[in-house]
Amino acid sequence: MPEYINISVRQPYGVCGGIVPWNAPLFMIVNKVGPALAAGNTMVLKSSEKSPLPAILFASLCRKVGLPKGVLNILNGFGRPCGEAISKHMDIRKISFTGSVATGRAIQKAANESKLKKVDLELGGKSPLLVFDDAPFEKAVHSATFSILYNSGQVCMASTRIYVQQGVAAKFIEALRESIMQQGVPGDPALPDTKRGPQVDKLQFGRVLSYLDHAKQRGYNIILGGDKVGNKGYFMDATIVRDVPEDDKLVKEEIFGPVVVVNTFTDDEEEVLRMANDTEFGLYASVFTRDISRAMRVAKALEAAAVGVNCASPYMAIDMPMGGWKQSGMGGRAFSKHCLEDWTEVKSVFISL
Fold first, then answer.
1. Is 122 among the catalytic positions?
2. 44-72 mean pLDDT
3. pTM, whole model, 2 decimals?
4. Model confidence band, residue 332 (pLDDT cutoffs 50, 70, 90)
5. Residue 278, pLDDT above cutoff 80
6. Which residue in 287, 291, 292 sits closest to 277, CA to CA?
7. For the Aldehyde dehydrogenase domain, which residue ranges apply (predicted)?
8. pLDDT surpassing 90 at residue 2
9. Active-site residue among 122, 246, 269, 280?
């Protein structure tokens, strides 16, 4: 109406909470603290008990550059009581969490029971990688190798399910096997020649081994790896398992280790899309093909928040939003302008002239 001026404004939440995982602590700290503070909020940040030191270092750097006291507050400790306290605290208006689905559910429940605070969750993944007959072959092999070995497979968006079209399957699988073998065995990450390190701790190490034991008990075709490396530390063979039933837990569950399942598909595009989308997760997916029409068609059909065409995770771009579909997440997005907006609330103001 002409006698009114209506405007919308964005305002910070105020006090926010952040909970970061152990697998990429410094990256996750920057990813949460940066936009939250830039939008005008303060933050209480809990790091993982498995990797607490990056948060302490980050806080010391913030103090050196003159960040006022109370703007960033570091809380180290276990999920209970520390993470639970952040989730339930009545003065915290928003919480952002990256980690497992189970913990994400617990945080959502606690937040709902406090004051229905805004919750952003970035959770697990079981990312599919599709290789068609006309794929750029070397790029597909390299991308698949890097995706499953990066950070010793301890990445939520790792390409842990590979679907290869039958016409190129034998060649691709052998090339992938050779490519992974060329990366050598895991070792001390402090040494310059080491390409990948151990699993994070005994618990995670045992979890990955339990999946390998399952594969052996079922008689699945393990064409590479399948065991631990050495008798000291938590080092794991990179493992390729072929032709696993789609309803098996190796295909359905997030292993969080250097274990990849490789299955094949025929010329039926809908067939491979059904398999790729038959998952509770929707974090990242990849398609390798030289056919741009197919690439766009498949990218739209894949049920994932991010899709790589002739590239694979962990490729991201700082100007593109990242998040999750299905059980891989809910709420806001990381990176890009969407990230900054997600740390603010929208208010409508109606002015009568």
1. yes
2. 96
3. 0.94
4. confident
5. yes
6. 287
7. 4-349
8. no
9. 122
pLDDT at 115: 84
CATH of 4-123+328-352, one of 3.40.50.150, 1.10.10.10, 3.40.50.11500, 3.40.605.10: 3.40.605.10
The CATH fold of domain 127-309 = Aldehyde Dehydrogenase; Chain A, domain 2 (3.40.309)
Q: Is the pLDDT of residue 1 over 80?
A: no
For 88-109, write each residue's pLDDT tens digit.
Answer: 999 999 999 999 999 999 999 9
- Enter the tokens of residue 115: 């004051």
The domain spans of the chain are 4-123+328-352, 127-309
Same fold, 4-123+328-352 and 127-309: no
- The C-alpha atoms of residue 176 and residue 340 are separated, in whole angstroms, by 39
